[in-house]
Amino acid sequence: MTELLLNAVTTFFTLSIVAVAVQNTVFARALSISRLLSLVDDTTSTGIFGVLLICVSTIGGVLNWFANRLLVRFVPWPGLVRPLVMVLCMSVAYFLVFAVTVKLAPYDKIRKAVDTLPGATFNCAVIGTLLLSVSMQLDLFETVCYTVSSGIGYVFAVALVTEGQRRIQTDHTPIAFRGLPVTLLYLAGLALAVYGLSGYSVAF
Fold first, then answer.
1. Which of 57, 68, 103, 192 could pair with 147 in a Cys bridge, judged by C-beta atoms 3.0 to 4.6 Å apart?
2. How far is residue 131's CA from residue 62's CA, in Å, rounded to a whole number?
3. Angle at which helices 2-17 and 140-168 pack, to 10 degrees?
4. For the segment 74-116, what is each residue's pLDDT rounded down to a tens digit?
5. Shortest CA distance to 193 belongs to which of 26, 40, 75?
6. 140-168 vs 33-41: helix axis angle to the nearest 10?
């Protein structure tokens, strides 16, 4: 029992480090950057967006794991219908999170959460996470760990870019680079730093 628990904790922390740092959806995979930039400009919705994204990613990942097992068993060419199945899993996760949000969220937060939910569900970060969890051939527990950590990694990227933008948008920044250009340069520097964690070797 102790060994099983230790293995589970080790797996969770390993996949968390991989999803948050080494394979961050923004810095390593360049997924949903446009949505990230819109969140940076609207920091009041970042917390709500992060919670919804983590919930949708986790539920969608679990549904996609079961659906993928059925595809492999009963469909001759599962790769052809896998993208459609991922979208269906995201849609089911959307309605589940929507129902729970309307039922349990504080009254003053319901409207904001409902308005944020479509953007937190149907974006490249979620579908990229589902695709990666399938390509990595994770089991159910590993899928849950990876999808939760991937959502946390996206929120971490939003927080990091928000703080960075607050510091670099100063009078010392040349006028031509203020706004989006300097933010993209900042993102590029962070991406190079994170990409270095996974290692890189020249092809020749």
1. 57
2. 12
3. 40
4. 888 877 888 899 999 999 999 999 999 998 888 778 888 888 8
5. 26
6. 50
Q: Which residue has the tokens 């009078």?
A: 171
Alpha-carbon span 155 to 49, nearest angstrom: 8
Q: Average pLDDT for residues 22-26, to the nearest whole number?
A: 79
Give the Cβ contact number of residue 100 at 10 Å: 12
The burial class, CB within 10 Å (0-12 / 13-18 / 19+), for 166 is exposed
What b-and-e string marks burial along 111-136, b requiring 16 or more CB atoms within 10 Å of the CB?
A: eebeebbebbbebbbbbbbbbbbbee
Place of tokens 């590993």: 142
Find all residues with CB under 8 Å of 121, minimum gap 6, and list them: 52, 56, 60, 90, 91, 93, 94, 97
Continuous H helices in 2-139 = 2-17, 33-41, 46-74, 78-104, 107-121, 124-135
